[in-house]
Amino acid sequence: MVSKQNIVAVILILLGVGLTQFKPGDAFTVGLGVGTIAMASAWIVVLIIRDLKKK
Q1: How far apart are CA 31 and CA 43, in angstroms?
Q2: Which residues fall within 8 angstroms of residue 13, CB to CB, at 6 or more apart?
Q3: How far apart are CA 11 and CA 52, in angstroms?
Q4: Rounded distance between C-alpha atoms, residue 43 and residue 45, angstroms
Q5: Which stretches of the chain are assigned E, i.e. beta strand?
């Protein structure tokens, strides 16, 4: 079963990808998108490590 945390992290990654594609000339939205992708990816890594430690 997929947890809600994983769903939220994937949605954040998709939003980040969307921000990097929206007005690619605007440095703020590109930076915001890359930051969102990085934070969500780090979140997923933390969740995976936590799940592996439980087993």
Answers
A1: 18
A2: 36, 37, 40, 41
A3: 23
A4: 5
A5: none
pTM above 0.85, yes or no: no
- In one-letter notation, the amino acid at residue 20 is T
**Could you read off the pLDDT of 12-51 as tens digits, one per residue?**
888 888 888 876 667 888 888 888 889 989 988 998 898 8
Cα dist from 44 to 32, 36, 38, whole Å: 18, 12, 10
DSSP classification of residue 23: S
Residue written as token pair 């690619």:
24
pLDDT of 24 reads: 63
Burial class (CB in 10 A: 0-12, 13-18, 19+), 34: middle
